[in-house]
Structure formats: structure tokens, C-alpha cells
UniProtKB/TrEMBL annotation:
<protein>
    <submittedName>
        <fullName>YitT family protein</fullName>
    </submittedName>
</protein>
<keyword id="KW-0812">Transmembrane</keyword>
<dbReference type="GO" id="GO:0005886">
    <property type="term" value="C:plasma membrane"/>
</dbReference>
<feature type="transmembrane region" description="Helical">
    <location>
        <begin position="105"/>
        <end position="125"/>
    </location>
</feature>
<keyword id="KW-1133">Transmembrane helix</keyword>
<feature type="transmembrane region" description="Helical">
    <location>
        <begin position="45"/>
        <end position="70"/>
    </location>
</feature>
<keyword id="KW-0614">Plasmid</keyword>
<keyword id="KW-0472">Membrane</keyword>
<feature type="transmembrane region" description="Helical">
    <location>
        <begin position="12"/>
        <end position="33"/>
    </location>
</feature>
<feature type="transmembrane region" description="Helical">
    <location>
        <begin position="77"/>
        <end position="99"/>
    </location>
</feature>
<feature type="transmembrane region" description="Helical">
    <location>
        <begin position="146"/>
        <end position="167"/>
    </location>
</feature>
<feature type="transmembrane region" description="Helical">
    <location>
        <begin position="173"/>
        <end position="191"/>
    </location>
</feature>
<dbReference type="Pfam" id="PF02588">
    <property type="entry name" value="YitT_membrane"/>
</dbReference>
<dbReference type="InterPro" id="IPR003740">
    <property type="entry name" value="YitT"/>
</dbReference>
<dbReference type="InterPro" id="IPR051461">
    <property type="entry name" value="UPF0750_membrane"/>
</dbReference>
<keyword id="KW-1003">Cell membrane</keyword>
């Protein structure tokens, strides 16, 4: 009998790549005073109005969804998602300190942030993980209803941007909306759950 490791090197590198790309996207957002949708966007907005770092706020906002994942999804998925949330919380804080921009046009920042976060989330999904928050709920909805993950998240984004209008200048909200459209388009066009395997039947006698 061969014992399988709980996570393979292949999955580790994929999750690490997802953490890095997603954290880089957050760095673009923060540098240009933008936001995004999903719970990450809520965490970014809260980090603008509270004396707390994004990483800590993101972790706190993600906790209820991690509990939801623990109850309704596999332990493997939940533990990988916890690792991803912790990784993004730490890595985004480090990148924010290490990377400085002499000039970063907000439109470019929005497009780069949406692209990086979209690719990062795709990598996490591909390796049975999520960035926590709404991603967990979105995956559950797609599995049960077939409603695509990217489009579900885009609907939630609309609520986040309504709140953003009270926190950010109008032009920053518009640029942020462009970034969110890019992010969700990347996911909506490139991510699809694999078809469910049919139940195995006993061979005929």
C-alpha cells in the first residue's frame, strides 16, 4: 500500500504561484488607491478607513467563509485555502513594503491588478484551493447550479462598488471597476469545473 502525501510538489508550486500573483495584484491596487470586488475588495476598502493593514483585514473578513468551507467542502480544499489566505496576507504586506512606483497610472494599475489577481485565482482553483472569501461560496454555487464562478463574483462586485463610492473618489471607483471586469473576465473565460465523474457500477457477474 502506497501512502499519498497530503499535498504534492506540483500543487505546492501552483498554490505558491497563485499567492504571489494575487498578492502582486493587491500591491497594484493599493499603490494606485484602487479597490476590487469580492471580499478582497471589502478588505481593501476597510484598510483605507481603518488603522489596520490589508493582510489582517483580509484574514478577518475571510474567516466566516473559511468556516463555511470547512463545513461544506473537503478538508483538503479548506486547508489549502487557509494556506492561500495566510500567504496572501503576508506576501501582500511584504510586497507593499518592497515595491515602490515612481509613476503608476491608475488605468494601468487597474488592468495589471485585474490580470494578476485573475491569473493568481485561476492557479489556486486549478490546485484545489481558493483565495478564501467569496471564492469559496462562488465555487459551491457553480458546482450546484452551473452558474459560472466569474459571473457570480461580478454580481457581488456591484455591491462592493456601491460602498466604494462612499470611500473613494469617483474616478478611482471607475478605474477599480475596470480592473474588476478584467479579473472576472479572466476567470469567467478561462475557468471551468471538470465534469463530475459518473458513479462506478459493479461489473456484471
Amino acid at each position: 500500500m502506497t501512502l499519498r502525501p497530503p499535498v504534492t510538489i506540483y500543487d505546492l508550486q501552483g498554490i505558491a504561484f497563485g499567492i504571489l500573483l494575487t498578492s502582486l495584484g493587491v500591491t497594484f491596487l493599493k499603490a494606485a488607491a484602487l479597490t476590487t470586488g469580492q471580499t478582497a475588495g471589502a478588505a481593501v476598502l476597510l484598510s483605507y478607513v481603518l488603522p489596520l493593514d490589508f493582510g489582517l483585514v483580509f484574514l478577518l473578513v475571510s474567516l466566516p467563509f473559511l468556516l463555511l468551507s470547512w463545513r461544506h467542502r473537503s478538508r483538503s480544499f479548506t486547508l489549502r485555502t487557509v494556506a492561500a489566505v495566510l500567504g496572501i496576507s503576508v506576501t501582500s504586506a511584504l510586497l507593499g513594503r518592497w515595491i515602490e512606483f515612481a509613476a503608476l497610472p491608475p488605468l494601468l494599475a487597474a488592468i495589471l491588478a485585474g490580470s494578476c489577481c485573475g491569473v493568481g485565482l485561476l492557479a489556486l482553483f486549478r490546485h484545489n484551493a481558493s483565495a478564501g472569501g467569496l471564492g469559496v461560496l462562488a465555487l459551491m454555487v457553480e458546482e450546484r447550479t452551473g452558474f459560472r464562478t466569474g459571473w457570480f463574483q461580478m454580481c457581488f462586485d456591484a455591491l462592493v462598488f456601491l460602498v466604494a463610492l462612499a470611500v473613494l473618489p469617483l474616478d478611482r471607483v471607475i478605474y477599480s471597476l475596470i480592473g474588476a471586469v478584467v479579473l472576472n473576465a479572466v476567470i469567467g473565460w478561462n475557468f471551468k469545473l471538470p465534469p463530475s465523474r459518473p458513479p462506478e457500477t459493479a461489473p456484471d457477474a
